[in-house]
Amino acid sequence: MGLPIVFLPGIMGSRLRFPESGLFWDPDSTLRMLRWIAIPVVNPADVLARKIHRDAPAEVLEDESNGLLDDQVDRGWSGVAKSFYVTLLQALQNNGDAKVYAVGYDWRQDLVALSPYLRDRLAVVRQRENGAKVILITHSMGGLLARSALRQNPDLVETVAGVIHIFQPVQGAVVLYRRFFTGVRVGPDERITEFPLIWIFGDNAQHFATNVCGMPGAMQLLPTADYQFPPGSRFIPFTEPADLYELYADLASPPGLTPAGASEYVRINLVQRWAEVRAFHELVRGFRHPNTWALFGTKLATDMAVGFDGATVRLVRPEAGDGTVPGPSGGGLFDEAPTPVGPDLDPAAARQWVVQKVEHSAACRNLEVQAAVQKVVDHINTLAAATV
Amino acid sequence: MTSPTLEPPSDDPVVHFNPPVGFEDLTDYHFEAADGRSWLSVHHGVPGPGETQTVEMAVATYLTQLHRLFPPLDLAFLSVGPAGESPLPAQRLAFTFADGGSQWRQQSLLGRLSDGSGLQINYVTSETDTTAERCFAEVVRSIRPHGEVVLPTLTGFIPRRVKGINLNVPVELRAPSNYQFVTSNGKARVNLRVTAADQAAHALAMHQPSIPPGATITEAGEYQGMKMYEVKRTGAAGPVEHYACREVKRLPNGLLTVVTGQSAADEASARLMQQAVVGLVQSIRAPGEGT
């Protein structure tokens, strides 16, 4: 019998219900997402922002079937976006005898503060599985949440047999920094046809900052102090302030991320966010579960750095990431050179693999990624059986 | 458009109240049929500084957003143009889209009132609903700024008020049951929930403040008889908010109302929220109960 598997989705990949407004964040329903579209003839930009702010209560939409089987709903699958993740969950379920669980979470929240939530959810799974250790599989932000919870709960480490990270922004995503100056933009963001919801956050700097500033979870995806591009250099052409987080907070923009003429709402929120971003980055820096494997992407045009001609952004987008996460960030958990993913993948010989031309949000639907994850799952199960 | 009556549905959660002063009304004025197969959403407000667009520009922006959100094959535009039946300068558009194995139709009106405020109304129905076009035309025809003489209400419609707008809405579409008020800086929030009497147990469960993931809640005194709670997150920012929550009353029409408040930890925000909650609670009344 294989160990139970727990899957954690990426940002915006959990389905949420907002009971106060009656809105849903549901990537599986265009009908529901339609209600998030800004009403341009009416809205100040911050109406959407205040509805999606982390202080607006939300709950994971786990009690709705979303076309899934009862036992899948019972294991949390309906809490994650079916269109992104269910093929992976199904493949894992079909290829083994272990139960596959999914844990949706409120991705707007501070990833430090979400730690007790994940700890409690894992405890429930283990209770249902007679105390068995679990295998954690994560996508994108889910990897950051897992590392946060494991880092804050040393006793949790023992209950996890292994962790597999898929396309984790270990050192953050430059695209988030860039969008504070450009918003979501046709051209550099063309690949987000895989993930059109991102348009909701705004196609100019003011709207983007306004909508994102109330979500610490999203802000914590900013590049960390460890991220460099080109190697040895900061990813932006500013050396002062030397402290990256002071640079983010700098009211001169660029390099700071507070847009010129920002509203009181944006300024108040960003001041809170800088402390949360720094604390989270410092918390998980250099930390991983002892039994960790990782896959990350490359060969797609990805924001790796940001240049400026005055206040005008100059894009630096070589084909060196997964379209969202730069390769060096995705591969930031290990010093070892990554091995190309392929049929010879050997989890006993390597800890991380690189995948070519697979877009970030499509990673969990990719058959090559699924096959690699399955091999690591089998390996962890073999190790666990040998230990017993 | 099936019921030839002016009586709202028995579970229509209509109450009267005075919106809290100093707060913006962020309520989603979303009137929805009991089966969820049709709804009307009404958005009325004043654009922010520098946000003013002409109606034509706003329509173009909205169309762009729709194109981005939908896969090309799932979206078909039916019409875009001036709304002749509207009493204000406005544009109408209609499109169909696929979702969840069904085909839907949205009809929208975008317009601007003489005071500069904007109005957008979206009416979503099954694509096959043969009454939808006539229904929406009546909604559009009935739009009046509050204070102007309203049109007689046709059979099958009831008059509704949304912020500064009066309009007639298909009777089978129930009123919103949640009202949200937030300060412009986002530091204080007040929510009113209206629940049918037979759902009282659910409403009672909401008498405690909601707690964000990873937070703890403790009692923190009273304000004018209302229990206050302090909520602390384990995150880097430390203590963040106070919460207040209070059951209001069972109204003569059988509805139960619950008001919750939430604020940042600073004294001014907390006091603003407390006053808003108390004032809102005092103002809640059933239709016909007086002011």
Report what the structure shows.
- The complex is a heterodimer of chains A (388) and B (291).
- By secondary structure, chain A is α/β, with parallel strands linked by helices.
- Chain A has helices at residues 30-33, 46-52, 70-74, 82-94, 115-128, 141-152, 154-157, 174-182, 205-212, 216-219, 244-249, 264-284, 327-330, 367-387, and strands spanning 5-8, 16-18, 23-25, 59-60, 100-102, 134-139, 160-166, 292-298, 300-301, 305-309, 312-316, 319-321, 339-340, 352-356.
- In chain A, the strands form four sheets. In chain A, strands 5-1-6-7-8-14-13 form a seven-stranded parallel β-sheet, sandwiched between helices.
- In chain A, a hairpin with a 2-residue loop joins β10 (305-309) and β11.
- In chain A, α2 runs parallel beside α9.
- Chain B has 291 residues and is of the alpha+beta class.
- In chain B, 16% of the residues lie in helices and 40% in strands.
- Chain B is built from four helices and 16 strands.
- In chain B, β9 and β10 form a beta hairpin.
- The longest helix of chain B is centred in the C-terminal third of the chain and has 17 residues, at 267-283.
- Chain B starts with 23 loop residues before the first strand and ends in an 8-residue tail after the last helix.
- In chain B, 42% of the residues are buried.
- Mean pLDDT of chain B is 83; it is low at 1-7.
- Chains A and B meet through α1, α2, α5 and α12 of A and β3, α1, β5, β6 and β7 of B.
Number of strands of chain A: 14
Main sheet makeup of chain B: 7 strands, antiparallel
Question: What low-confidence regions of chain B span 5 or more consecutive residues with pLDDT below 50?
Answer: 1-7
**Whole-Å distance between the termini of chain A?**
12 Å
Spatial order of the strands forming the largest sheet of chain A: 5-1-6-7-8-14-13
Radius of gyration of chain B: 21 Å
As residue ranges, the low-confidence spans of chain A are none
Largest interface: A-B, 57 and 63 residues
Helix count of chain B? Answer: 4
Structural class of chain B: alpha+beta
State which percent range the strand residues of chain B make up. 35-45%
Q: Percent range for helical residues of chain A?
A: 25-40%
Could you tell me the strand content of chain A as a percent range? 5-15%
- Radius of gyration of chain A, whole Å: 20 Å
